[in-house]
Amino acid sequence: MTEVSPIRLWVMRAMYLFMAAGIGNMVWPLIISHDPLVPRMTGVAWALIGTIGLLALLGLRYPLRMLPLLLFELIWKAIWLTAFALPRWLDGTLDEAMRTSIFETSFGAVLLLVIPWRYVWANYVARPADPWTFRRPANETARAHAPS
Amino acid sequence: MASTAGSEAPARRDLEVPLWRLYLMRAITLLFIVGGFSNYLPGLLDPSPTARGMTNAMLGGLWVLAFLALRHPLLMVPIFLFELVWKTIWLLAFGLPQWSAGRVDPQLSKDLFEIGFFPFVFALIIPWGYVWRHYVRAPGDRWR
Fold first, then answer.
1. What does the pLDDT look like over B119-133, one tens digit per residue?
2. How far apart are CA B73 and CA B20, in angstroms?
3. Are B85 and B123 in contact (CB under 8 A)?
4. DSSP 3-state assignment of A146?
């Protein structure tokens, strides 16, 4: 099993705390007041971001088990920067709001330092998949096909 | 895939979560992956110049992680919880209030089904015993 140092766990917890506090402060008041006139995509975006903040609380207790949440943060920010911000930047059509978002989203790059990559590799890539089949009774040596 | 896992396959009684439930988790993941090729991918590869894109990027991020969930549904339980929670928040804070305020538009009805229906599906699929044991009762990761 790949060990993760206590310092790293603290760094991860700091990250979860930052996410929970920031989102709790900025997004949850908007969700709770739920203005019925909010545009469709905005409601969806707030629900998604609010969920990150909520699940980050669980990360304080279980930083390693909640790693998928940190991976999610890193991946969606990378997607946003490359698919949405980069083309606008290349076209020279960035507006002020986009610039602010780029600044905030780029901060997600610290996740590259926070995430324990060796642990991720050992547990999410190298480790055997969750079972697809049962072990058959001993006299049956066949390789398992589809489960029955 | 089955052949590599086959040699290490556990006996039925050793499985912490029954195999049928792992398949149920994988099935909904697969549905999400397949749907994503038409729902999410085009918007990411050829984004609309006016889109802010935050929502698209987040849904795209969940879609990418779904590939991992196919292989490791239990490790990816946080993502299943994520799906349950965000859809529930949307339903309670936005979908239902708008619906009960009498707003009628086809997009809302579509969302009420496509987003608002799924919390119930996820609530049935998530292995709650496993969640309870590993995300509530289990001692936290060490502090020192």
1. 999 999 999 999 999
2. 12
3. no
4. coil
Give the 3-state DSSP-derived string for chain B, with helices as H, strands as E and coil as C. Answer: CHHHHHCCCCCHHHCCCCHHHHHHHHHHHHHHHHHHHHHCHHHHHCCCCCCCCHHHHHHHHHHHHHHHHHHCCCCCHHHHHHHHHHHHHHHHHHHHHHHHCCCCCHHHHHHHHHCCCHHHHHHHHCCHHHHHHHHHHCCCCCCC
At B18, list the tokens.
Answer: 């029954």
Spatial distance between the Cα atoms of B81 and A68, rounded to a whole number of angstroms: 11
**Does residue A79 sit at the B interface (CB-CB below 8 Å)?**
yes
Give Dmax (Cα) for chain B: 58
pTM of the full predicted structure?
0.89
Q: Do A75 and B64 touch (CB under 8 A)?
A: yes
| B contacts of A101 (beta carbons < 8 Å) | 52, 54
How far A82 CA sits from the closest chain B CA (Å)?
9
| Predicted complex ipTM | 0.89
